[in-house]
Design brief:
The protein is an alpha/beta fold and 207 residues long. The chain has one domain: Glycogen Phosphorylase B (Rossmann fold). The protein contains 7 helices and 6 strands; from the N terminus they run αβαββαβαββααα. It has a 6-stranded parallel β-sheet with strand order 3-2-1-4-5-6, sandwiched between helices. Strand 4, helix 4 and strand 5 form a beta-alpha-beta unit. The radius of gyration is 18 Å and the shape is globular.
Length: 207
């Protein structure tokens, strides 16, 4: 049965050649030059309200009120049109895998403010690239463990999101710990392990 599940999920099973869950091999930590760069928050920007971008903008407004040397960069397939707070940000459109990996690797914080997800890729991709992650606790339970692999906050708590971003911005020890833990956790999520887990569940339920 395990082999059947693996055949059904016929993606590459190695992190180094094809990356986790079949993602492109570009998603790994890159060397970046941060000299002269403002402290950088990166997030996936999507117009759907449940993706939480207005909450992130509100959290960012709180952040820049205390640390004005911080920038927010959103990326996605189409620009965001709603601005609930007027917080400034840049938008990068239709990035290649390499460009996205470089952006993630340059980040001081990857922020993921969604209200609803099943298994969100942006926080895991950020972890794969060695970036410290602040994420909501929606759909990330398999890989985002608070203060171990990420900082986890409830949605739509903008004050908690802002506080977590500031904590990673200012706590170098914590930030470095998450930078190291992220890629290791991402490497654990392979189709082999997924197939084993599905196989185990099926066998248990058939008893």
């Amino acid at each position: 049965m395990r082999h059947a599940v693996r055949d059904c999920c016929s993606h590459s099973l190695t992190y180094s050649k094809r990356s986790i869950f079949g993602w492109h091999s570009a998603l790994y930590p890159r060397e970046t030059n941060a000299e002269g760069q403002e402290r950088r928050i990166v997030a996936y920007g999507n117009q759907r309200i449940w993706k939480g971008v207005p909450d992130l903008l509100e959290a960012f407004r709180i952040v820049i009120a205390q640390r004005n040397d911080t920038e927010l960069i959103l990326y996605g397939s189409s620009p965001i049109t709603h601005r609930r707070t007027g917080a400034p940000y840049a938008f990068l459109r239709s990035l290649t895998d390499d460009a996205l990996a470089e952006l993630y690797s340059s980040a001081d914080v990857i922020a993921c403010p969604s209200w609803y997800e099943s298994f969100p890729y942006p926080p895991l991709k950020g972890m794969a690239c060695g970036a410290p992650v602040v994420t909501t606790n929606i759909g990330t339970e398999d890989y985002a463990f608070n203060e171990e692999t990420a900082l986890v906050v409830p949605p739509p708590d903008t004050k908690s999101m802002a506080a977590a971003i500031l904590e990673l911005r200012d706590n170098e020890e914590l930030s470095e710990r998450l930078r190291k833990a992220g890629p290791n956790k991402a490497k654990e999520l392979t189709w082999n392990k997924t197939a084993d887990a599905v196989d185990s569940i099926i066998r248990r339920e058939m008893r």
